[in-house]
Write a structure and sequence with these properties.
The protein is built from 6 helices and 6 strands, in the order ααβαββαβααββ. By secondary structure, it is an alpha/beta fold. α3 links the parallel β1 and β2. It is globular and about 50 Å long.
């Protein structure tokens, strides 16, 4: 990813090093929040962690841009191109496997196109191949932790308990009766 972005930046006469990706856990975020060389910290995630980031950055008189617990709505107006909307929603939901802070969790549709968009999304969702991400044609791999699976199941229960309807899917697909486990040496999940 970094090589692709570096190439795009350099083609546009910008230094490739102006983009950097860090891999790791909370210790990376804490180091960024504490670093006085970083004047602005942008964070997307839970309100609990966002409050902590804001407090740390404020202590050093830095600035924060926070997107907390809203989880990235896509707003679709009546003059939108439906196929473009469907591709964007598919990437923002399935493309991230729902396991990323930038995953779309809310879709706000203009009432005049509501049924058209939902119908088209259902058509696309029913065609998604779920399974081993290393197999050709697989669009969605497994949830990467037991906690992710439990959160998925709790989310489905909450939707139903609040009167929502599950239009397609909504259940965990077993893989030989076992949960999938992450293979850290290759940074993939495999069943």
């Amino acid at each position: 990813m970094t090589k692709i972005i570096d190439g795009v930046l350099e083609k546009n006469n910008l230094p490739g090093a102006s983009f950097t990706a860090f891999c790791g856990g909370a210790e990376i975020g804490q180091a960024i929040a504490k670093d006085t060389r970083i004047p602005l910290v942008s964070f997307t995630g839970s309100s609990k962690v966002g409050l902590s980031v804001q407090q740390i950055v404020n202590q050093r008189f830095g600035k924060c841009l926070l997107e907390l617990s809203g989880n990235n709505a896509i707003i679709v107006m009546d003059d939108s191109e439906i196929e473009l909307v469907v591709r964007a929603v598919l990437f923002a939901t399935v493309g991230t496997a729902g396991q990323c802070c930038t995953t779309c969790r809310r879709l706000l549709l203009h009432e005049s196109i509501y049924h058209k968009v939902v119908e088209r999304l259902l058509d696309v969702y029913k065609q998604i191949k779920i399974g081993d991400p290393l197999e050709k044609g697989t669009l969605l791999g497994p949830l990467h932790t037991r906690a992710s699976r439990e959160n998925f199941e709790k989310g489905i229960q909450k939707i139903i308990s609040e009167g929502g309807k599950i239009l397609t899917g909504g259940s965990v697909i077993p893989s030989g009766g076992e949960l999938c486990e992450a293979n850290n040496s290759r940074n993939i999940s495999k069943c």
